[in-house]
Write a structure and sequence with these properties.
The protein has 299 residues and is an alpha/beta fold. The chain has 9 helices and 12 strands. It has a single domain, classed as NAD(P)-binding Rossmann-like Domain (Rossmann fold, 3-Layer(aba) Sandwich), CATH 3.40.50. The protein binds NADP nicotinamide-adenine-dinucleotide phosphate. NADP nicotinamide-adenine-dinucleotide phosphate binds next to helix 1 and strand 4.
Length: 299
C-alpha cells in the first residue's frame, strides 16, 4: 500500500500496458479507478466530468496515462485522429491533473528518435521523429510538460504483454502455423515486458508517496540488453519450444527491413539509456531474456 490517502486514476486501463497495471494495482490492494474509451481523452469535458465524479469520492493524487493511438503505420493515413489522442489527449489529461494538483505519469516511446544513434539514447538527446506516430507522441510530451509541471514521462520500447497484439504473440502464432519464418535482423532495440514497466510505475508512485524526492521530467525504461527482432524471435522459439507454447519445429531465418516495406521506416537503433531511472529509483532492471521466460511461463 502507498501511504497516500488518494486515488490513482488509470487512463487507458484496457490497453496492453493498462491491463498489466490494472492487475498489478488490484493485486497490491492499491485504490485505483480505471477508464478507457468510455472517457474519451480527446474531449476535455468528458475528462473533467470523470475527474469530478472520481474526486467526489476520494482525492485523485496520481493520474497514469496509458491511452494512445498506437497503430504506427495506420497513423500515416489517419494523422488527425492520431494527433487528437497523442498530442491533444495528452495535453487535456495534463491540464486536468494540473487543476487538481495531481501528479501525472505519461507513457511515451522510442519513436521520438530517428534511430541513427550509435550509443543508447539519453533523455535529453534531441528528438527527431520520422513518422506521424512518433511526431505526435513527441508533441504530446511537450504538451504534458507544459500543462503540468508535476509530470513524469516514461519512454519505453518494444512492449509485449498478455493483452493485445504484440511481437511475442505474433511469433508464437506464426511458429505454430509455419515451418519457416523470416524476421528482420537490421533493427536493434530492447524488448520490454509490460509487467516490468507496470512494476516500475508502481515503484515510482510508492517511492514518491513515501517522501523520496524524484525529480519530475523524462525517464527511459526498457528491459536490459539489446538485440535485433531476429535475435528476439530465435529466443521466443527456443523458450517457447522448451516451455510448451510451440508444438513443432520452425526455422527462424534473418532478413532485412527492405524485404518487409512498411509505411513508416522503423528506427534502426532504438536502444534507450536507462541510467537515470535506475539511479532515481534505486532499481535493477531485469534482463530481456529473463523477463521473456517469466512471461512465457505465465502464459
Ligand atoms: N506497444 C508498444 O510497443 C509501445 C512501445 C513504446 C511505447 N508505447 C507507448 O506505451 C503506451 C501504452 O501502449 P499500449 O501498447 O498499451 O497501447 P494500447 O494497447 O493501444 O492501449 C491504448 C488504450 O487506449 C484506448 N483508447 C483509444 N482511444 C481512446 C480515447 N479516445 N480515449 C480513451 N482511451 C482510448 C485504447 O482503446 P482501443 O483498443 O479500443 O483503441 C486502448 O485500450 C502508449 O503511450 C504507447 O505510445 C507502446
Amino acid at each position: 500500500m502507498t501511504n497516500n490517502a488518494g486515488l490513482i486514476w488509470l487512463i487507458g486501463s484496457k490497453g496492453m500496458l493498462g491491463t498489466e497495471l490494472s492487475l498489478l494495482l488490484e493485486k497490491s490492494g492499491i485504490p485505483f479507478a480505471g477508464t478507457d474509451r468510455e472517457v474519451d481523452i480527446t474531449v476535455m469535458s468528458a475528462l473533467t466530468a470523470a475527474c469530478e465524479k472520481l474526486a467526489g469520492k476520494q482525492p485523485v493524487k496520481w493520474i497514469i496515462n496509458c491511452a494512445a493511438y498506437t497503430a504506427v503505420d495506420k497513423a500515416e493515413d489517419d494523422a488527425e485522429t492520431c494527433r487528437s489522442l497523442n498530442e491533444h489527449g495528452a495535453a487535456n489529461i495534463a491540464s486536468v491533473a494540473n487543476n487538481i494538483e495531481a501528479r501525472l505519469i505519461h507513457i511515451s516511446t522510442d519513436y521520438v528518435f530517428d534511430g541513427t544513434a550509435s550509443r543508447p539514447y539519453r533523455e535529453d538527446d534531441a528528438t527527431a521523429p520520422t513518422g506521424v506516430y512518433g511526431l505526435t507522441k513527441r508533441d504530446g510530451e511537450i504538451a504534458v510538460l507544459k500543462n503540468n509541471t508535476r509530470s513524469y514521462i516514461i519512454r519505453t520500447a518494444w512492449l509485449y504483454g498478455k493483452h493485445g497484439n504484440n511481437f511475442v504473440h505474433t511469433m508464437l502464432r506464426l511458429m505454430n502455423e509455419r515451418s519457416e519464418i523470416k524476421v528482420v535482423n537490421d533493427q536493434r532495440g530492447s524488448p520490454t515486458w509490460a509487467f516490468d514497466l507496470a512494476f516500475v510505475i508502481l515503484t515510482l508512485i510508492k517511492k514518491v508517496d513515501y517522501g523520496k524526492n524524484i525529480p519530475f521530467g523524462i525517464y527511459h525504461f526498457t528491459n536490459d540488453g539489446n538485440i535485433t527482432w531476429f535475435d528476439f524471435a530465435k529466443e521466443i522459439f527456443r523458450q517457447g519450444r522448451k516451455l510448451g507454447g510451440i508444438a513443432k519445429d520452425c526455422a527462424v531465418n534473418p532478413c532485412t527491413s527492405a524485404e518487409y516495406p512498411a509505411k513508416v521506416k522503423r528506427p534502426a537503433y532504438s536502444v534507450l539509456d536507462k541510467r537515470k531511472i535506475k539511479s532515481a529509483l534505486g532499481i535493477k532492471i531485469p534482463a530481456w531474456k529473463k523477463s521473456l521466460k517469466e512471461f512465457l511461463k505465465k502464459k
